[in-house]
Amino acid sequence: MVGEWASGAERSAERSVERTLGHLRVLDTDEHPPQRPATLEDLYRQQRMRMVRLAILLVDEPATAEDVVQEAFTGLYRQWSKLRDTQAAVGYLRTAVVNGSRSVLRRRKTARDYQPPHPGNERSAESLAMLTAEHQSVVGALGQLPDRQREILVLRYYGGLSESEISEVTGVSKGTVKSTASRALNALQKILDAQ
């Protein structure tokens, strides 16, 4: 994704992120092998936990992630009868989860601007229990990145999306996706080096 001109630090950060989020993606795929959903209920059973994990990586809070995913499924339910292809439903859900996560982060930022700062939400022990120490440090470092940078890395390495797909989901150009990913990997490596 970064390209041949990437610095050594960016390549190192990319390998770390790819190992960590790729590990989570493989766990999700092993847990729920992809099948063509026939009903909304099938889709819910197949995709709910994957979407919750995506939301957790974006908003860093399990309860809020659950709410974001529930809203995404509620929106899909309202549109289900108009859907021509049930495979498109997964893309709809992914976009809805990303947009819902953005809304949550905007509300958090607004709330922080009007309230005294408080300690951030710590990840639960359960959410990190299946990760090695290296993976835990990468997930922790992801949480320190600006929202858009974290979003793009999560969609690329956890979601397994291409630059074009990320561009479509986030509503930014492919060039912006590429440059943001490069900056994110560079910043992530600096955070990991400082740990």
TrEMBL record:
BP term (GO), one: DNA-templated transcription initiation
Domain (RNA polymerase sigma-70 region): residue spans on this chain: 43-109
A molecular function GO annotation: DNA binding
Transcription regulation in keyword set: yes
Boundaries of every RNA polymerase sigma factor 70 region 4 type domain copy: 137-188
SUPFAM superfamilies: Sigma2 domain of RNA polymerase sigma factors, Sigma3 and sigma4 domains of RNA polymerase sigma factors
Keywords: DNA-binding, Sigma factor, Transcription, Transcription regulation
Taxonomy of the source species: Bacteria, Bacillati, Actinomycetota, Actinomycetes, Pseudonocardiales
InterPro entries to which the protein is assigned, alphabetical: RNA_pol_sigma-70-like (IPR039425), RNA_pol_sigma-70_dom (IPR014284), RNA_pol_sigma-E_actinobac (IPR014325), RNA_pol_sigma70_r2 (IPR007627), RNA_pol_sigma70_r4_t2 (IPR013249), RNA_pol_sigma_r2 (IPR013325), RNA_pol_sigma_r3/r4-like (IPR013324), WH-like_DNA-bd_sf (IPR036388)
Keyword Nucleus: no
One Pfam short name: Sigma70_r4_2
Protein name in the entry: SigE family RNA polymerase sigma factor
Similarity comment: Belongs to the sigma-70 factor family. ECF subfamily.
Entries under NCBIfam families matching the protein: SigE-fam_strep, sigma70-ECF
